Amino acid sequence: MTAEPFSVEVTISAPVEEVWDALRDPGRIRRWHGWHFDGLDKEIEVIYHQDAVESAAEHRLEVQGGDRFELTGHGDRTRLRLTRAPRGGDPEWDAYYDDISEGWITFVHQLRFALERHPGADRRTVFLSGTGGAPLLEAAGLAAVAGPPAGSPYELAAPTGETLAGEVWFRSDRQLGLTVDGWGDGLLVAAQSPASPAGRGGAAMMVLTSYGLGDEEFGALESRWTAWWERHFPAEPAG
User: Fold this and answer.
1) pTM (predicted TM-score)
2) Residue 195 to residue 202: CA distance in whole angstroms
3) Helix (H), strand (E) at residue 187
4) Residue where a domain terminates, one of 95, 117, 139
5) What is the pLDDT of residues 41-100, one digit of tens each?
6) Is there a single domain that holds both residue 187 and residue 134?
7) Exposed/middle/buried for 79, CB within 10 Å: 0-12, 13-18, 19+?
8) Which of 2, 121, 132, 156 has the fewest CB within 10 Å, making it most exposed?
9) For residue 217, is it within any domain?
10) How many domains does the chain have?
11) Same domain membership, residue 106 and residue 149
């Protein structure tokens, strides 16, 4: 029996036309998709416009690889459903299927966050990735807030010496999203894949999103989290 394709669904407090425009305008996509790096604009072009098939009237978009966005308006709210193309079409693509699915979880929750909390605002991001080490949520002091439902308030001491406070934004099997008041009402997304059968630690990732921080404040945020990360989740050696 063929497994049902992966899907993720969120409800966004914004009209359907607003959400649709955020999926089609490259400048607006840049405010929520992924994280900032030198190739972000090219990545946006490849994913959302190269070989994309859209129906603006139906608010339906199929992007490269056959992954499909479907938007349904309900007054001033929009249900967004992202359905992955099924496995089996391309062995090389299938090898990354789960990783891409996890990426979509991050991205749709970042989209909801940008539209609901910071419409029209630019962001600054820090991306951290590595392998091995202790379980990410435990190492980062986030395990205590992994259980409460979305919308629950939290406050905790981070391992970087700062206090984080806000609300639980989303939870999934492998990810946790928290709003962070001190980052200009920012967003922290933490994700970790399971360890391999060979005993290696799973891949770990964090995306830190901030708003309105000056260069000095943002630089300090980036420095303290990068220094902590490199002690716990070193980059995988090449080769």
Assistant:
1) 0.93
2) 4
3) strand 186-192
4) 117
5) 999 999 999 999 999 999 999 998 799 999 999 999 999 999 998 887 667 767 788 899
6) yes
7) middle
8) 2
9) yes
10) 2
11) no
